[in-house]
Write a structure and sequence with these properties.
flat
């Protein structure tokens, strides 16, 4: 009986210490938080531009096309929505300059050749990937490592 009473007392002592420590930690956290508080900024959700969304769609479609070319399947027909690259709204419309227009036209031409000349689809596909990279080298280099994964080796 004495052992049981001793165990209960020890448990109560530990419980009391934990509550006191938790209360002290909470006070410290509140004090630190108040001292380090930054002015609250309103969170703004990133919205993809129409062109960025189109490029994401083209990337996904080209991943599928790559697999069809590797397997020797038919490539299908040229997806007409790719032509929207000329008119899709950009994040910064000042980027729609001669460089962009020239590279967009080169990309579309290379993409069309995949479907017009399926016997050489691998070469035309890699040319289209190169056209993407060439444009991104001059405008927005961020996605280049991802685009390079599209090459058919």
């Amino acid at each position: 009986m004495k052992k049981l009473l001793l165990i209960v007392c020890i448990c109560l002592a530990f419980a009391a210490c934990k509550k006191e420590t938790a209360a002290t930690d909470a006070k410290k956290t509140d004090t630190v938080s108040a001292a380090c508080a930054k002015p609250k900024k309103k969170f703004k959700m990133y919205e993809m531009s129409e062109l960025a969304a189109l490029m994401e769609q083209m990337y996904a479609e080209n991943e599928q096309l790559k697999q069809r070319i590797i397997k020797g399947d038919t490539v299908g027909s040229f997806p007409q929505h790719i032509i929207k690259i000329h008119s899709a709204a950009m994040t910064d419309e000042s980027d729609r300059d001669a460089f962009f227009k020239e590279n967009a036209a080169g990309f579309i031409k290379a993409q069309e050749l995949i479907y017009k000349d399926p016997k050489n689809a691998k070469q035309h596909f890699n040319d289209a990937v190169s056209a993407c990279i060439q444009c991104h080298e001059g405008k927005c280099g961020g996605p280049i490592p991802r685009i390079e994964k599209l090459y058919i080796k």
